[in-house]
Amino acid sequence: MALPAFGQSAAAQEVVAHIDAVTGQAFVNRDADRLAAEAGLKVHRLDEVMTYGDGRLRLNFRDGTVITVGPNSRVLVQHYLDTLGGADSRAPLLTLVVGILRAAVPKIGSLGWSVQTRAAVASSRSTEWIMEARGETTSLVVIAGRVDVMNGAGEALRLTGGEGVDITLDALMPATASRWAAARVIAFAERTSLR
After folding, report:
1. DSSP characters for 39-97?
2. Helices and strands: H and E segment counts in the chain
3. Which of 83, 113, 115, 148 is the most exposed place for a label (fewest CB within 10 A)?
4. Which of 148, 152, 155 is nearest to 169 (CA)?
5. 167 CB-near residues (< 8 Å, 6+ apart)
6. What's the rounded Cα separation, in Å, for the pair 195 and 154?
7. Could you read off the pLDDT of 44-87 as tens digits, one per residue?
């Protein structure tokens, strides 16, 4: 019984990213510890990143992916692997518990990324998108590239640059993505930028 616990602990201590910028109140929860978020702080697999009303931070992952976490958000680093060839070659995975984040995934050197919420999972490679989780609704807009999104029933939709979608838990996936109004895209972008 001691070996699995030790293995999980060692995996959780794996450094997968670092914080390169932060404003306002933000923390990293690691096991029973709450660490004040600051530039240079290393982020481990299974860490939870939290921001408050004035908080924002930017995470740089080993594969070059940049995740910007907006205000009033909670993000859990579920899984991370940045090279092929291992027994577990799943794409990196974050859980957006609540709030908003922006993902910029590089064209070269990344396995792609997935971000899950209660209502949906978005997966991409070589793209940039913004995702928000509010209660039972997940909203997603693609800034550039393509993103595949799937709801809990397994219904899928592919979005391209400029397209967005709102997905509600236990509801049918919209038949098509839509072009969001510029004001809505700008509001999402402003909430996920560091000044």
Report:
1. TT-EEETT-EEEE-TT-EEEEEETTS-EEEE-SS-EEEEEE---SSSSS--PPPEEEEE
2. 2, 17
3. 83
4. 152
5. 119, 120, 137, 138, 139, 140, 149, 151, 173, 174
6. 38
7. 989 999 999 999 999 998 888 899 999 999 999 987 665 444 54
Q: Which residues pair with 15 in a beta bridge?
A: 44
CATH code of residue 78 = 2.60.120.1440
- Hey, what's the torsion of the CAs at 90, 94, 95, 99, to 10 degrees? -150
Domain total in the chain: 1
Range of the domain at 21: 2-191
Give the 3-state secondary structure of residue 15: strand
Q: pTM for this structure?
A: 0.86
Distance CA 59, CA 42 (A): 9
Q: Quick one: which H or E segment has residue 21?
A: strand 15-23
Q: Rounded to whole angstroms, how far apart are CA atoms 16 and 69?
A: 16
* Among candidate residues 139, 110, 144, the one with its CA nearest the CA of residue 125: 110
| Structural contact between residues 115 and 98, judged by C-beta atoms closer than 8 angstroms | no
Please choose, from the candidates 76, 84, 40, the residue with its C-alpha nearest in 3D space to the C-alpha of residue 58: 40
Mean pLDDT by 10 residues, the chain (195 residues): 41 82 97 95 94 96 91 89 51 87 80 86 89 96 94 93 94 92 96 88
Tell me the pairing of strands 146-151 and 120-124. antiparallel
